[in-house]
Amino acid sequence: MGRKICGFLSALVLVVIVAVCIPMTVPRLLGYEVYVVISGSMEPAIPLGSALYMEAAAPEDVAAGDVIAFYDRGAVITHRVVENHVVEGEFITKGDANAENDMAPVAYGNLIGRMAVSVPFLGNVMAVCSGTKGKIYLACGVLGAVMLLWLGRLLDKGTGKRRA
Q: Cβ atoms within 10 A of the Cβ of 93, count?
C-alpha cells in the first residue's frame, strides 16, 4: 500500500512540474516569444504579472487596437497600437492605463511581434521558475518525486511485500 501512495504522490509532483514548464517551453517551440508583464501600463486589460505570447507579424499587417511588443532603448515594451503609419514605417502606441499616447513613435524595425494571447498571473509563476531559485525548486521537486518512489519501495520491503 505504501508503494502505491508514494507512487501516486511522486506522479502528482511530476505532473505539477511538467504543467509549470509547458507554458514556458512549448510555445517557444511553436515560434512564439514569451514575456512577463512587469508594469501596470496595460491594466486592466492585461494585468501585472500576466504572461504574453507574441507571434511574428509583418508591420504593415498590424492594425489599430492590436497589442504589440517592441524594443525601446533596450527594454521590451508592450502597448496597444493607436495608429499604424505605413508610409512613415512607424506605430503610434499607448498603454491602456496611460492618459496620453507614447511620446515617441515606434519604428517598424523595433517591432518584436503582436500579442496572440495573454494569461493573467502565469507570468509571475514563469518569472519565479525561470530564475535560479525556481530552477532549484523544480530540481528539488524532481528529486523529491524520486525519493518518494524510493520510500515506497522501502515501505513495501518492510512489510514483506514483493512486486510481481
A: 24
